[in-house]
Design a protein that fits this description.
Layout lengths: L1 H27 L8 H10 L1 H36 L1 H14 L4 H12 L3 H25 L3 H9 L4 H38 L5 H10 L3 H29 L1 H5 L1
Keywords: Cell membrane, Membrane, Transmembrane, Transmembrane helix, Transport
Protein name: ABC transporter permease
Family: Belongs to the binding-protein-dependent transport system permease family.
């Protein structure tokens, strides 16, 4: 009942926001700057074929490749830093430093290096998603119970046994927390990459419509991008519940 009550309150808040937006945009009466939600919904319906068949697949491919590469690289680096103090002291400061550089400033450089191919957008997505995955996994690996580790060692467990039976289960909740952040950030990374230079994609389409002063068409792909981010977030939550059943029981 508590969850249902929370969902109802959230839905009510969104509904109030949309009503205020609809009334405010109608009074403002400049649709090329601030279109109404109904106008955006109508434009999204009219453009559904173009967006879903021509531009959404390009964006999803960027998101998928970026996430897979970030997961593989991030988890590998997190495990290495957990096992080696030298690796931690070498790479951890570099990981932190990488987040101090605005991605929007690097994106044009990636376009210069890789051209208008998919890889210039993938690199942007990787740069945004790599940090939360690596740091959260690393923190999760370090959070394993030291007393349990000593107990396993006294019982003759090998480093491999400790890693898979203690460190990995301890790190999984943190990994999924980082993954929840990464999947939503990957959508932003893909959109930024497409915005600055692409031949297809939801971000590219939104930018193209901006040059035509079509406010509703600018917002339509943004709404679709938001829906993709929400879907991926919910997908990670479902995956987390399936894999971490033991935590739910506890």
């Amino acid at each position: 009942m508590k969850n249902l009550h929370s969902y109802l309150l959230s839905s009510l808040l969104v509904l109030v926001f949309l009503i205020v937006w609809e009334i405010g945009a109608s009074l403002y009466n400049k649709s090329f700057i601030l279109p109404t939600p109904t106008a955006i919904a109508g434009e999204l319906w009219e453009l559904k074929t173009v967006l879903l068949l021509n531009h959404l697949p390009s964006t999803l491919l960027i998101i998928l490749i970026g996430l897979v590469v970030s997961i593989v690289m991030g988890v590998t680096l997190a495990v290495w830093m957990n096992m080696s103090k030298t690796a931690e002291k070498t790479f951890y400061p570099l990981i932190i430093t990488s987040q101090t550089i605005p991605v929007i400033a690097l994106a044009p450089i990636f376009v210069l290096w890789f051209g208008y191919t998919i890889w210039s957008k993938v690199v942007v997505a990787i740069l945004i998603t790599f940090f939360p995955l690596t740091v959260s996994t690393f923190d999760g690996l370090r959070s394993s119970n030291k007393d349990l580790k000593e107990l396993l060692l006294t019982m003759g467990a090998s480093k491999k046994d400790i890693f898979f039976k203690l460190d990995v289960p301890s790190a999984l909740p943190s990994f999924f927390s980082g993954l929840k952040v990464a999947v939503t950030m990957s959508v932003i990374g893909a959109a930024i990459g497409e915005w600055l230079g692409a031949q297809a994609g939801l971000g590219y389409f939104s930018r193209r419509m901006m040059t035509q002063f079509d406010g509703a068409a600018v917002f339509a792909p943004i709404v679709l991008l938001s829906a993709v981010g929400i879907f991926l977030f919910l997908l990670v939550i479902c995956l987390e519940k399936i894999i971490l059943k033991w935590r739910e029981k506890q």
